[in-house]
């Protein structure tokens, strides 16, 4: 029962973590692209920035969430192993593992992609740093949510067990009371 609640809490925390990292990374990617465009020409108006950000949220974010999910699938079990050995700093290890895994994913994508960089924001060190921060944020969200979900699921499971135990204790008592009443008549 204990492991079931842990796995469920990890899965429930994984999806929002990937979503947060994907959305944040998409916004960062858009703003770095706009910054690059603005450096060679006129700056973009606020409405154009919003339109470009919205466009990337619809078109780039789903792709980036796949990259994030694959990176996190590798990173989070490693973080859990380290935490089992060290027995502390769960949040820090999850955040660091997710950030590092995203950096490795960028390096691997840039190595295997036919173009110089697959994700434009990672062309510069500053862009790579900010994109990695989206992984750090996703790891933080995962760590916090997995703890919250695990505690709530454990409480729910314990409450169900107590209810089942009290139901089991009441059932035999009512059955014996019924038998004694029928024999006394």
Structure in a nutshell:
With 185 residues, this protein is an all-alpha fold.
Q: Could you walk me through the main structural features you see in this protein, from its secondary elements to its overall organization?
A:
By secondary structure, the chain is mostly helical. It has one domain. Helices cover 88% and strands 0% of the residues. Helix 1 runs antiparallel to helix 4. It is elongated, with a radius of gyration of 25 Å.
| DSSP summary, beta strand count | 0
Strand content: under 5%
Range of helix content: over 70%
**How would a textbook summarize the main sheet?**
none
Subunit arrangement of the protein: single chain
Element layout with pairings:
Elements: H1 2-40, H2 46-86, H3 90-112, H4 125-184
Helix pairs in contact: 1-2, 1-4, 2-3, 3-4
Keywords:
single chain; 185 residues; 88% helix; 4 helices; mainly alpha
